[in-house]
Amino acid sequence: MRKLPQGLKLGVATAAYQIEGAWNFADKTPNIWDTLCHNNPESISDGTNADDACKSFEFYKRDIDMLKFVGVDFYRFSISWPRLLPNGFANKISEIGYEYYNNFINELLANNIEPVITMYHWDLPQNLQDLGGWANPLIADWFGDYARVLYKLFGDRVKMWVTINEPKQIGLMGYGMTRMAPALNATGIGEYLTAKNIVMAHARSWHIYNEEFRDTQKGVCGITIATDFREGVTDSPEDLEAGLDAIEFEVGLYSHPIFSSKGGFPERVIKRVGARSAEQGYPNSRLPEFTPEEIEYVKGTSDFYGFNHYSSKFYTRSAYKPGTYAIPSYDDDIGADFTYLDYEKGAVPHVTVIPHGIRKALTWVKDNCNNPPIFITENGFGTFGGLKDATRISYYRRYLDSILDAIEQDGCNVVSYTAWSLIDNFEWSSGLSIKFGLFEVDFDDENRKRTARASALWYKKLISTRMLDSNDDDIPELVEHIF
Ligand code: BGC
User: Which Gene3D superfamilies does this UniProt record tie to the protein (predicted)?
Assistant: First the structure.
């Protein structure tokens, strides 16, 4: 048995597109995932979409009942940008969108649950995508205007803001690949344009909070970065270098401009992309530069490090042969090949169970990002379903154990922990087939019956006792709890 540190806050998370449904209710306009799922259903492994999802727009009070049942300190959820601002721009606020989120926040507070709002969890208004989306530098202003609306409407009651969830997934998978909306497949270009614009948009929204709202609202505002750990497969100098390059491309690209003392993109990324771009005949590096003013504008613009972590990957120096990659290519720029090694796997390949990886990732953040307060904004395990989810409980237990090591032995400043996710939901390109919920959702039932899994009961007990047990066989007895 291990005692959780006093004051460590425990919560759960979801995101608007993954749970709300009501995709075209009232004046809501389409987002980039509506477009992808409707126009290219073959992009989603089971052909589903999130038109209805968990119907949380309709049944949000039941979600709150579940949060109460588990006893969480806070709930991290996201706002659908085109539900609140149907034009994408801040010239029109939807009455219905406003009322929905306003009631939701009030209801959480009435039940003593702290609202933690993510402003952007991947559902960009389609009309802004048509103007280039995250590849257009003007998005820093569009996002800033949206953020200001949020602070004005809800900041009297919401004290914790996550600006943007996981820049890498937005830029790499959406612009560099076709795994996520808008599926642009512009590898070697899209990742870097979006990296700069996302960081600038984040900084803009932080400055707006800092200068216009912080004094009166007294909250915190920061970014969430996917911080799965990356390292060499072995300790050979080549593998070590490959691991260092990988973590700078995959994490440092977003954390370095904001959290390091030097600012700007990481040196390793600047060098590698610059050299490859020159070899390929580009007149300039494909990695945009930050001007000295921009470097200063961005540095220090996060009150905490929002840390999402699912697993780790291991790298060797790539055995590049001409013709292996498209030109240009992000993978070629990193120059490192990854493998998952032989660890236990979940239902999605990116979640292999490597508990000590979270400790390494937390200490990497401590050492490379000026020892910030770390809010673990996501951690979780996907399965193919079933109420007796012993593998998920074991994952949570072992990862939390490793987090406690990072806190107690490495001095990482972890303030909160968030389980992903409250309920089964639309798991992006895996559709409805992969389940991350503490609660099962019956997607065949028009009322979307929600049933507590063993993991919900386990997490409830963890929160009430604040003791982490170390026995993997200790699965709570499944008593039926339906919502
Ligand atoms: C995302 C979630 C997603 C989870 C599980 C994270 O990268 O923020 O939206 O459901 O991973 O794959």
Answer: Glycosidases
81 touches ligand 1 (CB under 6 Å): no
Quick one: pLDDT at residue 363?
98
The CA distance from 199 to 326, in Å, is 26
Atom of ligand 1 nearest to the CA of 348: 12
pLDDT at 241: 97
Mutation choice for ligand 1 from 173, 420, 422, 423, CB with most ligand atoms inside 8 A: 420
Q: Is the CB of 166 under 6 A from ligand 1?
A: yes
* Res 322: pLDDT: 67
How far is 461 from 396, CA to CA, in rounded Å?
Answer: 13
CB atoms within 10 A of CB 341: 11
| CATH superfamily ID and name for 2-468 | Glycosidases (3.20.20.80)
**Ligand 1 close to Cβ of residue 165 (< 6 A):** yes
Q: pLDDT at position 293, please?
A: 98
| Any ligand 1 atom below 6 A from CB of 231 | no
For the record, the structure tokens of 83 come out as 């539900």
Give the pair of three-digit tokens for residue 101: 């989120």
Of the candidates 191, 250, 378, 440, the residue annotated as catalytic is 378
What is d(CA 58, CA 78) in angstroms, rounded to the nearest whole number? 16
Backbone angles phi, psi at 315, to 5 degrees: -125, 150
Spacing, Cα 265 to ligand 1 middle (Å): 25
pLDDT along the chain (483 residues), means of 10: 96 99 98 98 98 98 98 99 98 98 98 99 99 98 99 99 98 98 98 99 99 98 98 96 98 98 98 96 98 98 98 89 82 92 86 96 98 98 96 96 98 98 98 98 98 98 94 86 97
Q: Tell me the CA–centroid distance for residue 337 and ligand 1, in Å.
A: 23
Q: For helices 95-110 and 139-154, what crossing angle results, to 10°?
A: 50
**Does the C-beta of 378 come closer than 6 Å to ligand 1?**
yes
| pTM greater than the 0.90 cutoff | yes
Whether 294 is catalytic: no
Distance, CA of 167 to CA of 192 (rounded, Å):
11
Nearest residue (by CA) to ligand 1, atom 12, is 427
Structural domain spans, the chain: 2-468
Q: Which residues contact 6 (CB under 8 A, 6 or more apart)?
A: none
Record the tokens describing residue 263, joined without a space. Answer: 């600012």
CB 362 within 8 A of CB 353: no
Q: Are 46 and 433 in contact (CB under 8 A)?
A: yes
The reported pLDDT for the residue numbered 394 is 96
